[in-house]
Predict the 3D structure of the following.
Amino acid sequence: MQAAEILMRQIVKAFENGDLRPLFDSIDENGIVWKSGSAQGGPFRFGGSYAKRGGVVEVTSQLATGWSFQCFKPKEIVSKGNVVWGLFEVAGEFRPDGDGAARPFEYECALRWRVQGGKIVEHQAFFDTYELFRQVDLAS
């Protein structure tokens, strides 16, 4: 197993347990570009592109507002060179106002990272935004 695959497995397992420290420790301070599966300014608070470590802190803070994850299980993780891809089963709950009734969700998510020197320099997430909206009752 390549180092990038091991890194992704470790970070995702910690994320599933609510521990963001391994993610923050693995971010390239100056070079990270973080892209979500949806547009910035769209219906997801965590949509868009973010830069540097501060951007990753911002996007994960936005994600934690209302969204909790109980499952982030790898189905497949593969790497070639400095690029690693993962396909994950994701499940959790969404609370639109932070206090309201939990709305459960399940979906598949693909992550693509570019890693240099043991640090993540590029992150991109892909998921079916409409299906997630439908499950948490936000689709029109």
Notes: The mean pLDDT is 84. The helical segments are 3-16, 21-25, 52-64, 129-135. The first strand starts at residue 33 and ends at 35. The beta strands are 33-35, 49-51, 67-80, 83-94, 103-116, 119-127.
